Amino acid sequence: MANNIFVPMKLSSILGINARTQAFSYKVNTIRGKKTADSKIQTDRVLTKAGIAHPEIYKKFRHPKEVASFDWTHLTDKFALKPSRGMGGEGIIVVKERLELSSWLTTQKTKVTVEDLKLHTLDILEGAYSMGNVPDVAFIQEYVGRHKCFRKYAYRGTPDIRIIVFNKVPVMAMLRLPTKESGGRANLH
Asked: Are residues 34 and 62 in the same domain?
């Protein structure tokens, strides 16, 4: 039983995303709390302040000139490029292997170059992947691989667990598994 990570549940004990949003998110969260939760950069600050382990942010880009002046060749062999206010996994490039000094292989098995990363970062800054298509912050984050126990359940991407906290008490959690249909993204949508 220790190797089985899935425990059967009754359908009535599962809270769907729409019910969760209506019952909890809209009614009880402050505007400030929603803005923090919607921003990966602000969430990083909260987690850091609380001493909670999470992937390190290597670099933040707020302006196009930062994209041009950054030395992309000094990136690690594995990393993720993300929009701060993205949703549904859109706009995320996850790199798992360096091919040459200025090119890498993504988890989608496509080659990306420094120029590809620069253009993608500029798209993020313009708001191409943000909620409401408003200007955003791009960042490069530590790569988090998939634990071996998830290999047979997750397609390519990294699963994660979302914990819902209500009045500072964890009340529920959900396991997000990447699927072939989602292109290896661990989404709820």
From this structure: no
Per residue in 79-125, pLDDT tens? 999 999 998 788 999 999 999 999 999 988 999 999 999 999 999 99
Q: How many residues does the chain have?
A: 189
Tell me phi and psi for residue 64, to 5 degrees. Answer: -55, -35
d(CA 15, CA 9): 12
The backbone torsions φ and ψ at residue 32, rounded to the nearest 5 degrees and listed phi first, read -60, -45
Provide the residue range defining the domain that includes 41.
Answer: 16-54
| Buried/exposed 142-160: b ≥16 CB within 10 Å, e otherwise | ebeebeeebeeebbbbbbe
CA angle at 183 for the pair 53 and 126, rounded to the nearest 5°: 70
The rounded Cα 167 to chain-centroid distance in angstroms is 24
According to DSSP, residue 101 is labeled T
Question: CA Rg, the chain, in Å?
Answer: 18
Distances, alpha carbon 102 to alpha carbons 7, 97, 99, 116, 178, in Å: 45, 11, 8, 10, 28
Token representation of residue 74: 């000094």
Both structure tokens of 120: 């993608």
**70 and 151 both lie in a single domain:** no
What global pTM score does this model have?
0.82
Judgement on whether residues 85 and 132 belong to the same structural domain of the protein: yes
